[in-house]
Amino acid sequence: MISALLYQAGEILKKDFYESGSSTSKERFDLVTASDINIEEVLIRGLKAQYPDYSIFSEERGEIDNKSEKKWIIDPIDGTADFVFGVPYFSISLSLEINGEITEGHVYNPISNEYYFSSAETGKAFLNGEVIKVSGTCAVEESLIAFGFSANYPYISDYYKRWRHLFDNCKKGMPLISPALTLCNIARGRIDAYLDSRCSMEGQAAGALILQNAGGKLLNYDLGKYDHRAAGIIATNGNLPVLL
Amino acid sequence: MISALLYQAGEILKKDFYESGSSTSKERFDLVTASDINIEEVLIRGLKAQYPDYSIFSEERGEIDNKSEKKWIIDPIDGTADFVFGVPYFSISLSLEINGEITEGHVYNPISNEYYFSSAETGKAFLNGEVIKVSGTCAVEESLIAFGFSANYPYISDYYKRWRHLFDNCKKGMPLISPALTLCNIARGRIDAYLDSRCSMEGQAAGALILQNAGGKLLNYDLGKYDHRAAGIIATNGNLPVLL
C-alpha cells in the first residue's frame, strides 16, 4: 500500500519538524538535509520492496533506472524552506509515470494530516478519501492566487512584470513555495490559481494530476501544452481567466 | 485557565480550517469572517467569565473598556490569509497588558498543536511547557529571515529598498504574514530575524514578549524603542546585525 508507506514516512518527517529549532545554525541545516535524505531512503526502500521492477526518480538520488516504462517520481519534502522556517506547509509527494503519462498522484502533509490522491483509473481526486472539486470563481477580482516566489527580488520583479493584472486586481495574492500542496488547494476549491516559473517535475507531477481530476486546468509556464517534465506551471480552477 | 480557553477556541478553528474548500467563493469568504468573529466571541466570553473586571481589546470588536489598568489583547486569527489559502500557519494570539506593559503572552497554532507562552513573572519562554531560546546565528550569510509581505508589489519594493543587504545576502529570505508565529519561530531558534512594517498590536504583543524572554531583541520599525502599540516590528535573535 502506497498510503501506508507515506504515513510511515510522514511520522518520521513530523518528528523532525517538531524537534527542529533551539539549535545552532549548522545543526539546523544539517537536520534538513538529513530529513530530505532520510525520507527519500524510506520511500525508495518501500517502493523497491513493493515494486521491484519499476524505475524510480527522486530529487536527491536522481534516476534508478530499471529499464521499465513504469517509474515512481519522489519529492521527499515538497516545500523544504517552509519546513526549515517552521511553517507546516510541506508535503511528501509521490507520483507514478507510465509510458510518460502520470497515472497516480499522492500528496501528504503529515502535520495537518491532509492526504490528497488521484489516479487515471478513478478519474477523480480525493482528500482523505472524500471527492474534491475546484472552486467556481471566475472573476479575477474575487480570486485567491498563489505565486511561486520567496523573498528573491529579481524573481518577484519578473512575476510582477508578467502577471501585473493579477497582482494588482485579484482579491488576494500570496507567495507560496510548495507546489504540490498549492495545486491540491486549488483542487479542493480553497484557492483559484497558481503560477510558478520554476517548480520541478517532482514537485508538481502528483499535484497536477490531482488538480486535473478535480476539474482544474494546466499549462506549461511558456503557455505550451502541459508536460510535467517541463519546469514551471500555470494552474487554475478552469474558470478563472489568468491569461490576458 | 487561559490555556484551556485557547484549546477550546482552537478546536473550533481547526474544524473551520478542515471544512473550508470545495465551496463557492462567497461561502469561502463568509467562512473566514465567521471564524474570526466566532473565535473572538468564544475568547471574550471566556475572559469575561474568568476576569470580569479586566478591559479587553480585540481585532474585530475593538475596545471593551472596564476602566481597568489590566487589559486582554486578542487576535482571534493571526495569519488570516494563510487560513484562507489553506496554509496551516496561523494562530490564536492573546496577551495581557498591565499599566501599558505586556506581562503575559500566549500564541497557539491548533493545527500543529504548538502552544507558546511567556510571562514577566517567569522571565522565560515556553513551547508546550519546555523552555525555548533563540539561535546563535550571528552572520547574515547564515541567517534565515522572514519579511512581512504578501504578493503586494509596492510593499515588496519598499522592503527591498530598505533591506536590500538582507534580501541579497541572507541564506534564505521568506515572505511570512503571521507575526505571532514568526516571532515564536525566532524565539525557539528556527529562524533568526523578522521585519514587518505593518503588523498590529494584536498580532505582535504576545509573540514579542515570548521572543524577548527567549533572548531576542526588538525595535519599532522606525528604529525607536520597542512599543507593542506601534505598528510594525524589527525582531532578531539578539545576535544578528540586521541594521547597517
From TrEMBL, chains A, B:
Question: Under which EC number(s) is this enzyme classified?
Answer: 3.1.3.25
Q: Which UniProt keywords apply?
A: Hydrolase, Magnesium, Metal-binding
* Disulfide bond is among the record's keywords: no
Q: Which cofactor does it need?
A: Mg(2+)
Q: What class of enzyme is it?
A: hydrolase
What biological-process GO terms show up in the record? inositol metabolic process; signal transduction
Annotated positions binding Mg(2+): E59, D75, I77, D78
Q: Which InterPro entries match?
A: Inositol_monophosphatase-like (IPR000760)
* Molecular function terms, GO-annotated: inositol monophosphate 1-phosphatase activity; metal ion binding
Note one Pfam family from the annotation.
Inositol_P
The name on file for this protein is Inositol-1-monophosphatase
Q: Which organism is it from?
A: Ruminiclostridium hungatei
